[in-house]
Amino acid sequence: MNDNHRRTYEKFVRVRGFGETHGSDFLATSLGHQLFLDIGTVVADFNSHAAAEASGHGDARQGTELRALARAALRERMEGIVRTARALGDEVPGIQDKFRMPRGSNDRDLINAARAFKADAEPLKAHFIAHEMPADFLEELQEDIDDFESAMSDQSTGVGNRVAAGAALDELIQRGNDIVRKLDAIVRNKYANNPAVLAEWTSASHTERAPRRAKPDQPPATPTT
């Protein structure tokens, strides 16, 4: 939840509180009564989506860390295969051309290369094992591929949930502001002769301004001669 969301949410909470304080002044069948109920629903929905956004942010951050770990594990496994392929150059001509780490840092390229490593190493498995590679090194490579793809998917899901919750908050702000705008006319008409309540409403229904950033101190001007 960004600062704009937070300040607007606080306004909605104040408006809901105004309605709870003065709700008895409005008939249960009146538009004003219904709008105060609606702003209460907006506050409840806001809390729900804000929690979802925070959760999505945490999931995305965790997904980023797990993705980095899974990427490192996969690269280490592949580099072991590349190193062994170099040692096999005399036994299997051209083997080094089959096992090269991809250039750049694209994760999808890394996964595609890992799958190619697995396919190309399958018929040469005995050669790799003779050079002390684990007997299940191809199965371990597949596990690393699966773990990396799972981490990428989890990170993407977390980011998607965070973005969706943020969009929902934007929609709630628009809906809540529409309600407050309608209530503003109703409340000012209702309490036209009650300046104290009107002052209370004005305080409740305004959105706090963002604090201004202090300007950096200007260095003193150099006197001219």
Overall description:
- This protein is an all-alpha fold.
- It is 74% helix and 0% strand.
- It contains seven helices and no strands.
- The protein has helices at 3-22, 31-87, 95-98, 107-121, 125-130, 137-190, 195-205.
- The longest helix has 57 residues, at 31-87.
- The radius of gyration is 31 Å and the shape is rod-shaped.
- The mean pLDDT is 89.
Secondary structure blueprint with pairings:
Layout: H1 3-22, H2 31-87, H3 95-98, H4 107-121, H5 125-130, H6 137-190, H7 195-205
Helix pairs in contact: 1-2, 1-6, 1-7, 2-4, 2-6, 4-6
Q: How many DSSP E strands?
A: 0
The unreliable regions are none
Q: Which structural class do the helices and strands define?
A: mainly alpha
Mean pLDDT over the residues: 89
The largest sheet, given as strand count, sense and whether it forms a barrel, is: none
Please work out how many helical segments DSSP would assign. 7
- State the domain count: 1
Report the portion of residues in β strands.
under 5%
Encode the helix/strand succession as letters: HHHHHHH
Distance between the termini: 54 Å
How much is the radius of gyration in Å? Answer: 31 Å
Q: Judging from the principal axes of the Cα atoms, what is the shape?
A: rod-shaped
Could you give a short description of this structure?
This protein is 74% helix and 0% strand. By secondary structure, it is mainly α. The mean pLDDT is 89.
